[in-house]
Amino acid sequence: MQKAVPYGSASDACRLHTLDYFVPQPTRPTGVWVIYVHGGAWRDPAIDSSSFGACQALHLSDPRISGLASMNYRLSAYSSHPSLPSSPDDVARNAKHPDHLQDVIAGIKYLQDRFGFEDRYVLAGHSCGATLALQIIQQSSLPFPKPCAAMGVSGIYDLPTFAVGSTYERDIVVNAYGEDENLWQQASPVAGRFDEAWPEAQAVVIASSADDELIGLHQAASMTATLEKQLEGGPKLISVALEGKHDQVWKEGRELSRALDILLEAIKSP
């Protein structure tokens, strides 16, 4: 396991421009890479690339997988965090959209340049990591191929709807995206055109839990409805009902792993 590997250019490097990865030996050339993007409301310093650890441990010997990676990226400000408050002069913790997005793209490019897996990878994310994963797929120009499959777990897919839930939830969106509500709509995965942006897709999993105390089931329902309309007759679209609270899904790893298993089974062999 390689940890805290720096990515990106030296000119804009910061301590959160790192990723962790694992490549099994002997290598598995017919498998796929799994690239995971952590959640944490774009700002929580206590949730980082290590949050994939419990799930990852269950797949180290998985013959379907050629590599596993988990990204860190710059975070938005969180000056009220109870134990790790951000500072205004910390470049790693004052990010605004699209900084988070650009960082994850740079991390994937590092992996592509090093391992050359092209479209043989799965892009997965939890909470705002699911937002980022689907935002990346919406990009019209990337320095690498788009993934063959994607997985959103307990994701935020409709930013305006999330923001009206409470003052706390609005503050999360404003903190990461600013006050422009038109930008919130434009950046929301539910506003995307996946039929145009991702014709090569093989499979998508949208996973959510009725026990989730932070993200309502309507987020997954809206994302699923968008994909059903746009990807009809195309890739496999699979809704997965998880068990457990918001962070329990990744902390224990079993439910995140179960969703990943379902996605891996839906991917075509090369």
Secondary structure elements and their pairing?
Elements: E1 2-6, E2 18-22, E3 32-37, H1 53-57, E4 65-71, H2 99-115, E5 121-126, H3 128-138, E6 149-153, H4 159-163, H5 167-177, H6 181-187, H7 194-197, E7 203-209, H8 217-230, E8 236-242, H9 248-252, H10 254-266
Parallel strand pairs: 3-4, 3-5, 5-6, 6-7, 7-8
Antiparallel strand pairs: 1-2, 2-4
Main attributes of the structure:
alpha/beta; 270 residues; eight-stranded mixed β-sheet; 10 helices; 18% strand; globular
Q: In short, what is this structure?
A:
With 270 residues, the protein is α/β, with parallel strands linked by helices. It contains ten helices and eight strands. The mean pLDDT is 95.
Structural notes for this entry:
The two termini are 26 Å apart. The longest helix is centred in the middle third of the chain and has 17 residues. With 270 residues, this protein is of the alpha/beta class. The protein has an 8-stranded mixed beta sheet with strand order 1-2-4-3-5-6-7-8, with helices on both faces. The relative contact order is 0.15. The chain is globular and about 45 Å long. It has 10 helices and 8 strands.
Mean pLDDT across all residues, rounded?
95
Rg (C-alpha, Å)? 17 Å
The sequence of SSEs as H and E is: EEEHEHEHEHHHHEHEHH
From the spread of the alpha carbons, the general shape counts as globular
User: How widely separated are the two ends?
Assistant: 26 Å
Share of β-strand residues: 15-25%
Helicity, in percent? 25-40%
The total of helices stands at: 10
- Number of distinct beta strands: 8
Physical arrangement of strands within the biggest beta sheet: 1-2-4-3-5-6-7-8
Main sheet: strands, sense, barrel = 8 strands, mixed
Q: Helix- and strand-based class? A: alpha/beta
Question: Which residues form runs of ≥5 with pLDDT under 50?
Answer: none
